[in-house]
Design a protein that fits this description.
two-stranded antiparallel ribbon; two-stranded antiparallel sheet; mainly alpha; 68% helix
Amino acid sequence: MCILMTEMCERLTYYSVVANLVLFCTSTLKYSSNDATTISLVFSGSVYLIPVFGGCIADGKIGMFNTTYGFSLIYLLGLFLLPASAVDYKDLFGGDEYELSVEHRRIYFMLGLVFAAIGTGGIKAPLATFGPQQVQDMGPAAVQTFFNWYTWFANAGALIAYSGVAVVQQNVSFSWGFFIPLLSMLLGIVSLQFARRHYIHKQLTGCCPPKGREKQQTHGFFDTARIQHGGSYDDKIVDGVIAVLRVLPIFFLLTMYWAVYSQIQTTFFLQGERMDLNVGKGNVPVAILNVFNTISVMLLIPVMDRVLYPCMERLGHPLSHLHKIGIGMVVAASSMIVAAVLEIERKKQLGFQQVVGSETFNASYISVFAQIPQFALVGASEAFVSVSGLEFAYTQSPESMQGVMMGVYLASAGLGSYLSTAILKIVEETTVDDPWLPDEMNNGHAEYLFYLLAGLMGVFFLGFLLVAKKYNKNISSNRHIDTEMV
């Protein structure tokens, strides 16, 4: 429970940072919409590439707990700089001479993002591995249950961030809105420390080759690295490398899924800014629509765990990890189609000026809540892909490289954000005469971009089917790994 609470606090922190990141960049830091979108995607991408490094340190150097704790401290440094970039120093100290220029705010903000990316990225792989290690001896069912609740708690943190912190950022101030995630991460560190004496710690395997071994006859490419064949590494390390290489094609094909998923913080946000935000006497935060993504996940996970998956087993058609991932990819593609249809209708009903933060947009009379279906579909896809992906990564690796394998899986999400950035840049360069996503979204054809993403998701899904069917479930390792195939 302490590990799950730490995950919830960390996710609350992370999503509080990214919830209105685009709005903060355009309103306070005076970046263009395209630049703000790029910053958001690069930050998200970097966050999910760093777990490979964190996993390596945890597996071979200092263990899961120490790695999580150390990166948490780096995280705090970044979280201190973010509110520092947003504070109104003139009002705080009572003088124009204390006002911070936009350039200096940008420096504080970018440094904050760098340290926050290193911190949250370094935490991901060891925390996601440390948790199931506590229940691993109870059997595969306990591991599956842990990952279900791990994802549920992560989305609970996201729900608080989008429904609470996002409101503070848009309607009160970003200085307070960035101060809350700092407090949240402090609470997460306390939670992690609370059960320190009771954790189960797996023995470190190390990644350094032993010395002084005599060379023997070699057998095959990877056998040359084994000690018994004259190499420098024991079987655990070699088998771990083989396990990682086997799953790389599957993880690579997931990058397009994460590129689609990243739209909820970028293009979906830009679309929502230009829709009717009026509810009663005020405006709802644009980022609050992410609540429907998280609610979708939190409702579906218990239903799938207790109803859908057991029912499929009783019918004689159990869903494997790869089955579930494939279903999620299809659902994600459908969310892009729904977003495209809404974008077409949205631009037909433009007609009033709407203030969001410190910016004014020509908005549509269609309520922002018309975005609920596309957010809910992304959430449904996450319930399939995220839980199954985490469990797949954990079960496909020998104990010696569980942190690395988890990091490699999480890196697919980071590459997905970078892929999304690349797609947006290519679209920008190739549609100059009739732009799909100009700085003012109302003057473009974002619906074409959504259709393109849906089509690319379909292509990657077909590739996933081919790779998954060929995936070899008989992995050579020192322990039994419960692997399933499509």
